[in-house]
Amino acid sequence: MKKGFTLIELLVWIAIIGILGFGVIQLFGGFRQIVTKNCGGSMTINLDPNVKLLQATWKENQLWLLTTERKDEAPKIYNFIEKSTLGILQGNVKIVEK
């Protein structure tokens, strides 16, 4: 009778648990925002048609956007780029008006 897991079985279980955990975080935790803000990375937000961006701000790990209706204005693209002291782990958020 076999006791415990082999190394391969253990690695497979760790991978499965990791993938499931990542999926849960992705669904419920706003993972992309957390990574972009805290670890660098990039994300793009596409606003609905005729919506104008007025302001963007972080509250903890959530990005909040202040928007209004766009009237007779051309759509714009906004790039918010973090410039870190060491030049590593820089975040980039691109907000696109349509």
How far is it from the N-terminal to the C-terminal residue, by CA?
64 Å
Q: How many separate domains?
A: 1
- Give the count of helical stretches: 2
**Can you tell me the residue ranges where pLDDT is under 50 for at least 5 consecutive residues?**
none
Q: What is the global morphology?
A: elongated
Strand order of the largest sheet: 1-5-4
Topology, number of strands: 5
Model description:
The chain has 98 residues and is α+β, with helices and mostly antiparallel strands. The protein has one domain. The chain is built from 2 helices and 5 strands; from the N terminus they run ααβββββ. The strands form 2 sheets. A 3-stranded mixed β-sheet has the order 1-5-4, with helices on one face. The protein has a two-stranded antiparallel ribbon with strand order 2-3. It starts with 6 loop residues before the first helix and ends with a strand. The model has no long low-confidence stretch (mean pLDDT 85).
